[in-house]
Design brief:
The complex is a heterodimer of chains A (311) and B (403).
Chain A: H1 12-26, H2 28-51, H3 54-69, H4 71-86, H5 90-120, H6 122-137, H7 140-151, H8 155-180, H9 183-191, H10 196-229, H11 238-247, H12 251-276, H13 286-294
Chain B: E1 3-14, H1 19-26, H2 31-38, E2 41-52, E3 56-61, H3 67-74, E4 82-87, E5 90-91, H4 97-106, E6 108-111, H5 123-127, H6 129-134, H7 138-151, H8 167-180, E7 185-189, H9 197-214, E8 217-222, H10 225-231, E9 234-239, E10 242-247, H11 249-254, H12 259-265, H13 270-273, H14 276-279, E11 281-282, E12 286-289, E13 292-296, E14 302-305, E15 311-315, H15 317-326, H16 336-340, E16 347-350, H17 355-361, E17 368-371, E18 377-380, H18 383-391
Parallel strand pairs in B: 3-8, 3-9, 6-7, 7-8, 16-17
Antiparallel strand pairs in B: 1-2, 1-4, 4-5, 9-10, 11-18, 12-13, 13-14, 14-15, 17-18
Helix pairs in contact in B: 7-8, 17-18
Classes of the chains: A mainly alpha (311), B alpha/beta (403).
Chain lengths: 311, 403
Amino acid sequence: MLDANDLNVFPVDAWIQDGVAWIALNLRPLFLAIKWPVEYVLNLNIFLLQEIPFLAIVAVSVLLAWRLASLGVACFSAVALIAIAALGVWSEAMTTLSLITTAIVICAAVGIPIGIGCARSDRMWGVVRPILDIMQTTPTFVYLVPVVMLFGVGTVPGEVAVVTAAAPPLIRFTNLGIRMVETEMVEAGLAFGATRRQLLWEVQLPLAVPTILGGLNQTVLTAMVMSVVVAMIGAEGLGLVVLQGLGRLDVGRAAVGGIAIVLLAMMLDRITQKLAQPGGPGGRPLLRSLRALVRSSRPATSKPAISSPDQ
Amino acid sequence: MTERLRVENLYKVFSKSPDPALRMLAAGAKKADVLAKTGMVVGLNDVSLSVPSGAIYMVMGLSGSGKSTLARCINRLNEPSAGRILLDGRDIVAAGEAELRDIRRKRISMVFQHFALLPNRTVAENTEFGLKLQGVSPQARRRRAEEVLSIVGLARWGNHYPHELSGGMRQRVGLARALATDADVLIMDEAFSALDPLIRTEMQDELLRLQRTLKKTILFITHDFQEALKLGTRIAIMADGELVREGTPQQIVLEPGSDYVAAFTREVDRSRLFDARWAMTPVQPVPLAAGLCLAETGDGGGLVLDDGGHVVGALDADTLRGLRDTTGLGNSGLGTGGLSALRKDFVTVRECDSLLDAARAHRAGRPMAVVDEDGRLTGTLAADRILAGIASAPSHPAGGLHA
């Protein structure tokens, strides 16, 4: 009888081991180059979020939630943040939040341009798409192995894993958003003599913004999940609280970490979800919300006043 | 009228390598043959036409006839497979990328069926879209936007968003956007088809009103033959990618030329389309008396004209016969007694009045005089001629029957 184990003749594990060791040894400059900006942005974020006083962070979060989403979300954010502080994991929560905000910054800086490239070139999309498929079907847990081998352990390698896991939805949604812009809109642009660049900036990107923000919401949630998982490779934050609780069979500690994670995740989800929906409070699309945020002296419900030069 | 736009032997095959299909078409194959043999869809098959400057040129056809393909080839949203499109003598098909962009920015603008307004921009921002692409300064383009918005009757709507406007108003914005660039050629691709009937009629009237002052060269695509008749100075009818009939609305209704075209013209309201000049019987006045002429109306009676050709009265058949019997015509027989027999109850219509107006003016037993702009008699119009003109094409379009 043939036994399944009899087929195990190829030392695949050894090959991969050797391969990764070779890559780690010879491509070290490449990984350092990838690690450097991640480390820089992450440290900046950690510094900011840890140094800004508790009340200031609550105030800013509530204001953001109110202007970008709604009053309800703003109230929830206030309650959630105060609860996290009351649970005694404020510092850890801020570390987790820095992992997430860093992921947003880096994913947006890298993912959106890649998404735009994919939307404009079928060939590029043909190459990127299978990679995204693999990245998104791979369990987040599995990311940790190559990351540890190539980047080591700690918070910064953890951030690399977070970014890697969180980027695919944003790339996908950016590509989708641009491709979904109605042909008549694109033709209107062309018919009035738009260059390719003008077409992108004047027509395609503005109309793709809601979809791209939907992708951003997915990215935030994936980053949230991943920021907990990377505790296993030594990243700090709320994940570490849970992991320590488990390690010491301290159910209370683990639960505190878990509750804080849920509160933080819900808050981030509510705020970013509202971004993608056209019309937050007073039926204002995102860009106008952002504009209103800048000139916050105006009442929230004011119409976008684009005054004519003659008046 | 000078020629603004000329299309010469234009072909469009939807394929990356259209050569086999083009060879088949050149050898006389039809759209269906090419599809069966090569699997390629033919959009345009040897279309040639000439659009005079200042005309509203209607391209009419059912869906799949290639009418939109033709329009979109003009500004090369669709790339023609073969042929030439001459704008003031310059071939658009041969234009390079930069030249094409310049043509699209300055010479040809377009109005879309579903408006294609950017939802994230205000009406004014949409209107100045073309100018923004050209790099016109914000102040200058806003001024221009306000100008054209007031032309289309939306002066106070500049700061609103398209979703706050009704369909008709949105298409006015679409029109304003097309007018803002000052292009002299306007492509209107089924521009009013998405509007409900009342608004559509209103927009058609509006377009005719605007065109009187703007004098653009308009290529208007439509599937509605009534719309083509109403707006068009000339109409081209397309079927299966080919041009099957081209001419003025009256020519096409009179001589459809094929069953396909006749199917559209059958339901046409001729009483509005044709004018009195077209159905009238021309007159040949003969001298009657000093300073007076007689124009026979065909029923035995006649109209009496003065030196200037103006109608002074009518003679019924009996009076005229009496005059002929006693004195003979031309021999100053119409004395004082005869003049008193002149009837003043004749009806006058102008040459440019529609047959519908002529029918309304008609009174039984009273002769109808057709006069030109200066009031001079050019013809007479009998009831049977009016009816024949409304019902179908008379066998003798001019002269004939009663002459």
